[in-house]
TrEMBL record:
InterPro entries named among the record's database cross-references: Ald_Oxase/Xan_DH_a/b, Ald_Oxase/Xan_DH_a/b_sf, Ald_Oxase/xanthine_DH-like, AldOxase/xan_DH_MoCoBD1, AldOxase/xan_DH_MoCoBD2, AldOxase/xan_DH_Mopterin-bd_sf
Keywords: Molybdenum, Oxidoreductase
Limits of the Aldehyde oxidase/xanthine dehydrogenase a/b hammerhead domain: 26-138
Name of the molecule in the record: Xanthine dehydrogenase family protein molybdopterin-binding subunit
Species of origin: Occallatibacter riparius
Length: 741
């Protein structure tokens, strides 16, 4: 890495390999389940084998007498665990009920006990020897959400959608279903708890260490200072690891009772019951339009299932009110309860299933009007956020996404007839969809520190979910100081660090960069003061405005930076180990700059499928994805995010679905062999383009953050392409072979 001024200017927007890459590829990066401690023992949960009812008898005696078994925890002996206090310290939990709180079973796989033994094998064997008896009732895991006649709330309304729909010359009225999808990060959820007196350190698979700490403190009834949560590396989470799940408290209690470190690793099968999923959605969309395709009315009424105790609104109407210009609109939502675990945000929650319905309806409307779906969207594009007093968007280039994408894809070569496009004996289908995702700057504090050993460091209580967060932060420090990347330490993933945001909502980059930049500016200023006031410093006596920092060296602006003094030498001359400063990000809701603006990213997806009619096989062969995500800090990591999301979109369109047995409530395809996620072999040729227009409202760098938006709009483009190839309109995801026979 060169330290010339040229490299400083060039690093923002430069494809930069992950600074943590070598640690990951050599196995040196410690994921939560990699932590080992002296005298550590292993916990294995016991899962309910009914989906509804209660425990009538729990016999742990056989398990307790097995070799190596130290403890079996359950409702009868876990002792007090508390629910999270709503609104207190902003603690957000996943399940409202604490572990083993009562003997009622509300979903299949709910934990009924946890066995702790000297070895994992002993704990696993003993867990299978715990005998539970139940009074079982039939669970309700019905996928007919539309039967629900309970509370329905209006989440966005303008004009008179029903009147305008009734009188519209062209009408589209359709129902779309998305199935339960389970988060399948490769890294399993895990907890390792280590007590020291009344203090506990938890090595967690957490997308939010700061929140995790507060929730654990409340659950365990401890002062917040007594809990420390560490997540150095994450093998992703897709939202499943945003908030704590019951296994974390079970691990902490077991470790405390035994006075030994305890590790619990959730199995893949348990991950289909106990750590969240994207709920099933049933979405009713009505669009009224003129014969020319101008939208007159839009209704989006959705249901998503929630669990028996948790109120989880998927938020399918997140993008609906802002994507198009339409005077009459309403979005409503309702949440029928099912005997299933708590749903949880999953990559692009709300907007992704919501846009599947909305964009499918737009594609169907285009077909009905005999209109190009691209033209229909451009005709109905909006420059204002019509859901919010017609305020402007901070930066909206959706139309450019459509136009750039169409050009790259070759959309003008599309012929409209069903099955009219062919290549190498296969039928081609082309489809497209729009995408959007909300942006916001969350509060954040970061501390930037120059050290006398020549290293530069930033500390922040956020974490890297695996997307390149470490690298992007280092890029900003390099840009500010010219210190080479290999001399920069990015310290994240510890709840004891200055408070940072969750790795969620694609919001870390947009939220943290300002805090780092402000911290760096502050630390540089202090360094300049020290340089100007320290005996032995070549800059002694220089006025502060004349001192620059380039390539890690302090120099006067009239001097070549190579003639300046390295910051480490200045610190040594001043006999200082380090100089640091704290920087903050002002959250959007407190920032006068963002008042009066609607903040969103946008995108367009163009999809080609190849259809082999002989065997009814659909394969997504090509995707062009154009993203307007503000300024892109690291195009390599960003492209990786969008390409990964597109592959997940292939899964959403063609493969992913968690199926529940209606007799028992059991997720019956709860393994990576039976639950199909898109693999490399399913991945199409993917062309990712970023428009790279800095967002003038999103802080110093204008980055809105990207990731989840790459999934939005892919599935409706796939179903449109499938229709184009086959003439079969699939409104229930995923598209199955049997739909096409
Ligand atoms: Mo994402 S669903 O906010 O981890």
């Amino acid at each position: 890495m060169s330290t010339t001024p040229a490299s400083m200017a060039a690093i923002i927007g430069k494809a930069t390999p992950r600074i943590d890459g070598p640690l990951k590829t050599t196995g040196a990066a410690e994921y939560s389940a990699d932590f080992h401690f002296d005298r550590m023992v292993h916990a294995v949960p016991v899962s309910a084998t009914i989906g509804n009812g209660r425990i009538t008898k729990l016999d742990t005696s056989a398990a307790e007498s097995m070799p190596g078994v130290l403890l079996v925890l359950h409702h009868g002996n876990i002792g007090p665990l508390y629910r999270t206090v709503p609104g207190d310290d902003n603690a957000t939990n996943s399940e409202v009920r604490s572990a083993f709180e009562d003997e009622t079973i509300r979903y299949f796989g709910q934990y009924v006990a946890v066995v702790v033994a000297e070895t994992l094998e002993q704990a696993t064997a003993a867990a299978s020897a715990v005998k539970a008896e139940y009074a079982a009732e039939t669970p309700n895991v019905s996928t007919k959400l539309g039967d629900y006649d309970g509370k329905r709330k209006s989440t966005s309304k303008r004009g008179d959608p029903d009147g305008a729909f009734a009188s519209a010359p062209v009408k589209l009225d359709a129902v779309y279903n998305t199935p339960v999808e389970t988060h399948n990060p490769i890294e399993l959820h895990a907890s390792v708890a280590v007590w020291d007196g009344d203090n506990v350190t938890m090595y967690e698979t957490s997308q939010g260490v700061v929140n995790h700490r507060v929730v654990m403190a409340q659950t365990l009834g401890l002062p917040v200072e007594n809990v420390r949560v560490i997540t150095r590396y994450l093998g992703s989470g897709f939202g499943g690891k945003l908030f704590p799940w019951p296994h974390a408290a079970m691990t902490a209690v077991a470790a405390r009772k035994l006075g030994r470190p305890v590790k619990l690793s959730v199995t893949r099968r348990m991950m289909f019951s106990c750590v969240g999923y994207r709920p099933h959605t049933e979405q009713h969309v009505k669009i009224g339009a003129t014969k020319e395709g101008k939208l007159l009315a839009l209704r989006h009424d959705y249901f998503n299932n929630t669990s028996m105790l948790d109120d989880f609104d998927e938020g399918c109407g997140e993008a609906t009110p802002i994507l198009y210009s339409v005077a009459n609109l309403e979005v409503t939502s309702a949440q029928p309860r099912r005997n299933m675990g708590a749903p949880m945000w999953m990559r692009g929650p709300g907007a992704v299933p919501g846009l599947y319905a909305l964009e499918s309806a737009m594609n169907e409307l285009a077909d009905q009007l005999n209109m190009d779906p691209l033209q229909l969207r451009i005709l109905n594009d909006t420059e204002k956020d019509e859901s919010n007093k017609d305020i402007p968007f901070s930066s909206r280039h959706l139309r450019e996404c459509y136009e750039v994408g169409a050009k790259k894809f070759g959309w003008e070569r599309r012929t409209t007839g069903i099955g009219s496009m062919r290549r190498d004996g296969k039928i081609l289908g082309w489809g497209m969809g729009g995408a959007s995702w909300v942006a916001i700057q969350l509060p954040c504090t970061a501390v930037v520190e120059f050290c006398a050993n020549g290293r530069l460091c930033v500390r922040c209580g956020t974490q890297d979910i695996g997307t390149g967060t470490y690298t992007v932060f280092a890029q900003v420090l390099h840009e500010k100081t010219g210190v080479p990347l290999e001399k920069i330490d990015v310290i994240l993933g510890d709840s004891g660090l200055p408070g940072g945001p969750m790795s969620g909502g694609s919001m870390v980059t947009g939220s943290v960069l300002d805090a780092i930049a402000n911290g760096a500016n502050g630390a540089i200023k202090r360094l300049q003061q020290i340089a100007a006031s320290t005996d032995g410093s070549p800059l002694k006596g220089a006025s502060l405005e004349t001192i620059a920092l380039t390539g890690g060296r302090l120099h006067t602006k009239s001097q070549a930076y190579t003639d300046g003094a390295h910051f480490a030498d200045i610190l040594s001359a001043a006999k200082l180990a380090r100089v640091s400063a704290e920087g903050k990000t002002t959250p959007s809701w407190e920032n006068p700059k963002s008042k009066g603006y609607s903040l969103h990213s946008f995108g367009a997806q163009f999809v080609e499928v190849e259809y082999d009619p002989e065997i009814a096989r659909v394969r997504v062969s090509r995707v062009v994805s154009v993203i307007d995500g503000g300024r892109i800090i690291n195009p390599k990591a960003a492209t990786n995010q969008i390409a990964g999301a597109v592959v997940m979109g292939v899964g959403m369109g063609l493969l992913e679905e968690t199926v529940y047995d209606h007799r028992t409530g059991q997720p019956i395809n709860g393994s990576l062999a039976d639950y199909l996620v898109a693999t490399c072999a399913d991945a199409p040729d993917i062309d990712v383009t970023f428009l790279d227009h800095p967002d003038p409202i999103m802080g110093e760098y204008g980055a809105r953050g990207i990731a989840e938006i790459g999934l939005a709009g892919v599935a409706p483009a796939i179903t449109a392409a499938v229709y184009h190839a086959t003439g079969v309109r699939v409104r229930d995801l995923p598209v199955r072979i049997e739909d096409l026979l």
